[in-house]
UniProtKB/TrEMBL annotation:
Residues 518-528 have a biased composition (Low complexity). This is Receptor ligand binding region domain-containing protein. InterPro entries: ANF_lig-bd_rcpt, Peripla_BP_I. It comes from the Eukaryota. SUPFAM superfamilies: Periplasmic binding protein-like I.
Length: 528
């Protein structure tokens, strides 16, 4: 608390000192990005994501300035070092470097970040005095903190499940490299996929990093390592990624068939190179570019777009030469952001599906679109002259058809053993921060899912038993009174009224077993 007060006082002093001195404000709109380029309090440990965002911000500003015909923007990046103190320092630096006399639009547009809501709230205590807007990831009811909705990664999970379903797989090996501490995105996707697959009654074998054994069905999350494709033999591997991996996979020499499922959207041209040659990396080393963090870049891109859109709308109405009222600017921004958030909720996501069999090149098979948790595959037309069935093309391409497996229902040692393996695996990496789901939540989910399975099984047996006794033996009077209103009892009383709509209900002894069996299967189908 003391710290915030000090900050406010400092701000006021800075403002007072420079008050009255008319300075010429820059003609570009300045945006400050507060992000953790280092993510530890001593500010030593570089964050892959931070470097990516730094380079992306610089590149996005350049791209915007190349095509705009109104006002150029300038993005200054300040390192929060992942701590509250760091975030406050970064905010102060941002304000000072922007010139306190020019903190209004169109000269100063606002702040993006900081990353976490705690840090954002802390920084906001200072910046709200100056009525400076922030665009942040998490919802908040502070007047100058605006939430820009962060895209979820569940479309990748939905897309992958759709392909697995289409391939008729009953089990698969899940490979997700979580050696890197920062790979919480990959881990999140892997967890979500595991849960969703278990819920769909699939067997998931979570691959152990030291294990050299693979099944013939593999799902790999994220970009595979160089040597990965030489380990499994004659397997079908689905590679699921947010990034564009065509280049990385097209040259691979492997005995496996690779199905690549990746985000359709192009990444920023030149970003990968810029990140790898970033000034932040220690000398003589090439940095790591993580394609699975591209959703972060897209979020940043959207945030910048919201600022520039708001700026354009202001400039359209009147000449944006003079400074605007801070509250007006905040309102304009809030409106643009609200429109953007509604729109992004409604758009569907799209994934490209391509195939690479042993010797051939990567070929496009079609795409998978995911809208509100419903995934749909659109196969690419194989022949242009095939005009008749344009509306619903169910023509599965030949290359894909070949992969559809007639898997034998072998599910030995599935759920529990591999769950344990995953658990052991995670013991080594408990320090990995999983942002969207913590371990407890995850195990609770697993427990619930398996619990539901057991419960359904028991209910099913009970139902069958009740029907069985109702139909077979004489029904005791008192029991029938209890059961009168249940649907199970109704199935029984149907039998007593042969004219109730159904055709010629068998009443003879020998056939009774058949009707009995059909009801049994009805019930058990329903309950499973
Ligand atoms: C912007 O324009 C300059 C000059 O035309 C060009 O050198 C630069 O590559 C462009 N940058 C981007 C990101 O398009
Ligand atoms: C992989 O496939 C090739 C060609 O179909 C076959 O000759 C080879 O024996 C297979 N290898 C294994 C380990 O199944
Ligand atoms: C691919 O690998 C196999 C065996 O390792 C080798 O015989 C073949 O020449 C390689 N093909 C190419 C195009 O590198």
């Amino acid at each position: 608390m003391e710290k915030f007060r000090q900050c406010v006082i400092v701000c006021v002093i800075i403002a007072a000192c420079t008050c009255g001195v008319r300075t010429e404000c820059e003609s570009r709109g300045r945006i400050s990005l507060l992000t953790s380029i280092h993510d530890d309090a001593p500010c030593k440990k570089l964050s892959t994501k931070g470097v990516l965002l730094y380079e992306a911000a610089k590149l996005l500003a350049e791209v915007h300035n190349n095509k705009t015909n109104t006002i150029d923007i300038d993005i200054a990046v300040f390192d929060t070092c992942g701590s509250i103190t760091g975030a406050l320092k970064a905010a102060m630096k941002a304000l000072v470097s922007a010139d306190i006399n020019c903190l209004q639009a169109p000269h100063y547009l606002g702040i993006i970040g900081p990353d976490t809501s705690t840090n954002a709230e802390a920084v906001h205590k200072v910046t709200s005095v100056l009525k400076i807007p922030h665009i942040v990831r998490k919802a908040s009811n502070a007047p100058y903190l605006h939430q820009l909705i962060h895209e979820s990664d569940s479309y990748l999970v939905q897309g992958a499940l759709k392909i697995i379903e289409k391939l008729k797989w009953k089990s698969f090996t899940l490979v997700a490299d979580v050696e890197e501490e920062s790979d919480d995105d990959v881990q999140n996707i892997a967890k979500k996929l595991t849960m969703a697959a278990i819920a769909k009654n699939l067997c998931v074998i979570v691959h152990d990093a030291d294990d050299e054994e693979f099944t013939s069905h593999i799902v790999h999350i994220g970009q595979p390592d160089e040597g990965f494709f030489s380990k499994p033999v004659n397997a079908t591997i689905i590679v699921v990624s947010e990034g564009n991996l065509e280049e990385h996979l097209s040259g691979v020499n492997t005995s496996n068939t690779i199905l690549l499922l990746e985000d359709t959207r192009d990444e920023l041209p030149g970003l990968e190179g810029k990140v790898e040659r970033s000034k932040w990396w220690p000398e003589d080393t090439n940095g790591k570019y993580d394609a699975e963090e591209l959703r972060e870049v897209r979020w940043l891109e959207d945030a910048i777009e919201v600022y520039t859109k708001a700026l354009d709308s202001v400039c359209k109405k009147k000449k944006c030469k003079s400074s605007m009222n801070a509250v007006d600017w905040n309102n304009v921004l809030a409106n643009v952001l609200a429109a953007h958030n509604t729109q992004s909720q409604e758009t569907s996501q799209s994934l490209d599906l391509s195939i690479k069999s042993k010797t051939s090149k990567l070929e496009n098979l079609g795409s998978v679109t995911v809208k509100k948790n419903a995934a749909k595959i659109h196969w690419a037309e194989e022949d242009e002259d095939d005009e008749q069935d344009d509306a619903e093309n169910d023509d599965v391409p030949e290359a894909f058809e070949k992969l559809i497996s007639e898997e034998k229902g072998k599910r030995t040692g599935c759920a529990t053993k591999e769950m344990k393996m995953l658990h052991e695996d995670e013991q080594d990496t408990t320090h990995v921060l999983v942002s969207e789901m913590d371990d407890n939540e995850w195990w609770t989910m697993v427990g619930t899912v398996s619990g539901v399975g057991v419960a359904m099984f028991v209910v099913g047996i009970l139902a069958v038993y009740v029907v069985y006794t109702n139909i077979r033996g004489p029904v005791p009077k008192n029991k029938s009174r209890i059961d009168r209103d249940t649907s199970l009892r109704r199935a029984g009383s149907d039998r007593e009224l042969p004219t109730s709509g159904r055709t010629a209900r068998p009443t003879r002894g020998p056939q009774r077993r058949d009707s009995n069996r059909s009801i049994r299967s009805n019930i058990s189908e329903k309950s499973v």
